[in-house]
Every structure is written in C-alpha cells, then in structure tokens.
Amino acid sequence: MRRWTSLPGGVKFLLGIAALFLVLFIANSTLNRYVLHVITLIGIYSVATTSLNLTNGYTGLFSLGHAGFMAVGAYVATLLTFPVRLRIAYNLPLLPSFLGGPEYQWPFLPALIVGGIVAAIAALFVGAPVLRLRGHYLSVASLGFMVIITTLAKGLKDLTRGAAGIQAIPRYTNIWWVYAWLVVTIYVIWRLLNSSYGRAMLAIRESETAAQSQGIHPMRYKLLSFVIGAFFAGIAGGLYAHFARSIRPYEFSFYMTFHIVIMLIIGGAGTLLGPTVGAAIVIALKYVLKPVEEGLGIYGLVEIIYALMLIGVMLWRPEGIAGGVNPLKFLMPKRKGGS
Amino acid sequence: MEREALLRVEGLSKAFGGLWAVRDYRLSLPEGVIYGLIGPNGAGKTTIFNLITGFLKPTGGKIIFAGVDITGWRPDRIAHLGIARTFQILQLYRSLSVEMNLMIAHHKHTRYGLFPALAGLPGYRRQEREVRERVAELLELFGLQEYRRARAGTLPYGLQRKLDIACALATEPRLLLLDEPSCGMNPREAEELAGLIREVKERFSLTLIVVEHRMPFIMGLAERIQVLDHGGLIAEGTPEEVRSDPKVIEAYLGVEDAVA
Description:
The complex is a heterodimer of chains A (339) and B (260).
Chain A: H1 9-30, H2 33-58, H3 66-81, H4 84-89, H5 108-130, H6 135-155, H7 157-160, H8 175-193, H9 196-206, H10 208-213, H11 218-244, H12 254-267, H13 274-296, H14 301-316
Helix pairs in contact in A: 1-8, 2-8, 2-11, 2-12, 2-13, 3-5, 3-6, 3-11, 5-11, 8-9, 8-11, 9-11, 12-13
Chain B: E1 5-16, E2 19-30, E3 34-38, H1 45-52, E4 60-65, E5 68-69, H2 75-81, E6 83-85, H3 98-105, H4 114-119, H5 122-141, H6 157-170, E7 175-179, H7 187-203, E8 207-211, H8 215-221, E9 224-229, E10 232-237, H9 239-243, H10 246-252
Parallel strand pairs in B: 3-8, 3-9, 6-7, 7-8
Antiparallel strand pairs in B: 1-2, 1-4, 4-5, 9-10
C-alpha cells in the first residue's frame, strides 16, 4: 500500500477536497443552525486569512490593509446583487446601463468575482507606491490605505449610505459557496507555489538581493502577490456581506484587520492550511467563550484571550501552530553578519 | 588576447559622499579566462562587483557586456543577460530547502504564463520537468544530493558557500563573479573548491572574476590578477608579475596575514 505522503500532490488535493465536502455534508445534515453558522463564518475568515497569507506569509510583505480590500469586495458585490425594488427604499443608486441597467439584479457569482476584481485593481494602484516600502513602514502605509477605504465608505453616502451601512442584503452565502471558494483560494496559492511565480515570491521574502541577482524583478512579484491576495480578500468581503446581510464601514477596520492577522500568526504564516487552522481556532474560541463571557459578566474576555494567545504564540512558537515562518521577523533586531 | 572582450569596463567610478570607493577602474576581460581581483580590505573589490551587477549605480564610466552597454541597468536585467554572482555575505534562501534554492535560481529559464501554471498546462509541466532535471544535475555536481531536503541555513558553512555557487550557475551565466568563495573554509576545503571552480568553468564554458583574500588560492586559480588599493588599480598581470610588484607588496605591508 502506498503511503499518504508518497501520493502526487494533485491526488492528495482531490482526496482532501472529497474529504472536506463529505465532512461538510455530514455536518450540514446533522448539526444545528448555530453550529453551521459558526462553520460558515470560519470558512469566510479562512478565505480572508489564506489570501492575507500570500502577501504576509509567502512574500514576506506584512500588509495590514487587508480589511480595506475586503470592504471593496463587500460593497461592490452588494451594490450589484442588491434587489431592485429595495434600492429606492434604501436610497441606493440604480445600476447604470453598462452594469445591466436599473432593472437588473446581478446573480451572486459574477457579483462576487467583480468585487474581487475591483479589489485587485485597487491593490494595483495602492501597491505601486506602498510596496516600495519595507518592514514596518509598509505595514503602517497599508494600514493607512485601510483607513482611507473606511473613510470613503463613510463619505460616499450616495453609494454606500455612509456610516448607516447597507442592510437587507440577500443572504446568498451558504456553507457550499464559502468552502468552494476556500478550495479555489487554496488551489490557486498551491499552484502558484509550484511555479516560478510563487517561488519568486518566496525568494523575495528570504533575500531580495539574491532574488535580484537571479533575474527576479522584486516589484513585479510583490505586486502580483498583493493583487492576487486582494482579489481573494474581495471575494471574502463579498461572501461576508451576503452572510451577515448588513455591512457598515467600521466593520472593515482595525478590528477585522487584526482579527485576520491574529488568525494568520496563530495558525502559521507561509503554510497552505495554517490560515484555516488559525481561523477555526479564533472563531471557535469566540463562540465557545461567548456564554462564559455573558455568564461571568466579563465583557472583552475573548479579546484578552486572543491577545494572550498571540503573545504566547509569538514567544514560544513564532512560526504558528501549523509551523511555517515567523511573519513578524522584520520587527526583530537584525542579525549581524551573514552566517 | 586578441579576442573580443566579453566584459569591457572603462573609467568606472563610484563615490559615496566625498569618498571615492572606486576610481577609474578599467578591465578588458576576454572570454574563457579566470581573472583575480585582490587588494586590502576596503580597496573597493566588492563595490566593483556591485557596480557590474547593477546593485550600485556608477558615478561615472561605462560597462559593456557582450557588446551591450549595461551601465545603470537593473540587477535582474543584468542577470538575464548572463552575469551571475555570489556574495561575500551569503545570500541564500535560508529557511527554504537546498532543492528549493536551486529551483528558484532557475527563474530566468521558465517562460510560461501565470494561467498555464495555475491550470497545470503541458508547456508549464515540461518546463518544470526541465528545471527539476537541471536541479538534479547541479545537486550531483556539487555533492549536495543528501542535503537536498535540508534547509539551506542549517548546512555547514562550507556547503552553504558551495550551494551559493551552484545557485549562481543555475542561472546559466556567461560571466560569473565570485566574491571570496573560499571565505570561512579550511585549506583543504579551499583546495577542493579551486578544483570545483576549474571543473565548472570548463563544463559551463564560463568566464570568471574572483575576489579573494587567500593568496595561494587566487595565485593558483587565476590567469591574470588585478590589484586594487584605495579604489584604484595599482597593478595588473600574471600571478608571478603581481607577486613581485613592489607597489603590491607595499599595499599589503602592515596588513596581517594578507600574504600567506
């Protein structure tokens, strides 16, 4: 009998998908709605964290702007799928003719994809200046981008209803949509890593100097990684909007960004499944501890535990539970010499 | 010596603030030779490598490689044209496997687009297979097969040096610049390395410039040697000529162990 590890990657991937959907199918028919709600949410955050992993884990660009791309995807997808008869009641614009005209309501899948594409385009424009920075300069600049996006979402009242947010979004997102997208996200990153494109990203993380001397143009691959990451962040945003059924600008802000960053660090940056592990732990913990929090009347307990977990992981297992790379290495003091 | 020069450098200069790190450096490097570049610490040897490979922009002068003026080009474009280098301070992908280091180094030999790679199309598969074959060859040539799965940063120092040279060769250069390749090796390892350098030079029909501190190593390896001091050339010739040049002896006086 062949050992599991000796199987070709493609076979392992297909078996993994089959197993995942079998488990989901069993879960879907046996578990209650509350648990399924949590499982779906884990899937959405897994897509977001996996896409963050491409830039922060594999390419070594510690971006904190990810929630901004999720916001772009969420708002764009929502504006496309929003029911025509509710648009006037909610003061939302009717679609212009090049998007199908005022009577047209987009189906979910193309709306999600367009949301992802717009997020990717935003990444292209933001990335060109921001990715010239390194280390914590890049982190802070990308955080600035996120603040700009939330401010725009608040300010463009005709388009987004400002701080009031958009409610009554149709609930299209379900467990199948979410996990299908998670599989697509992981597939794309897995294929990428098995090509010269992904290898160039790893090279940039490890040594930009060596990468350049071997014919790799760092900016090109940094942008590619940022844009692909933003696309899937946009997808995650669209899935989130059609799951939560309401979006407000502040939801895609510091809290969201640090949430997915914590998931990435706890799960394991620079590994294929670490982000999913991190998302599962962080979200499951939140729902397990919620009754405890309410029972004891200590609100904020969950956040304190997140913070302690983060500190613990950074101290004792900086490469995360799944064992990847330390994504915060750029904050550590520099080693002397080359050995 | 009447062949067309593979690399021609004219009046190359680099100033950092008011300090001339390199001043009026010139070189006419015929194809298929090993040149040595020596000089006391701070003489500007590594700066010259950085200028030739595009990591620094020259203050003045011209660099012509294979008939193309590459002065001021980006490092990755110069690498594509066929100049590879190693670094005195090793620049390996430390947390990646030895095999992965070599695969990355083959970057410029893959030509497939992003979508063929994502879909696993035949063109992508064929090129990836070729890369794997080349990596296997290099692993064997450098005796690194048993370490192929080891993280590069965990290798003994001598093997890291070897891996660095193997990675440079993976780009299939016409000109290879080695910056202190025997640094950190014991005399026996250095001797082996000299043999390996000669072997790969023949096998890959390379032209080399080697910066070295270890005098017996470079005297035995290079056909011609240039001597730098304070950013300027003070001597050039065969190892014997350079060894007996009074200016060279003077430049090295007081520098401990430099002439071993």
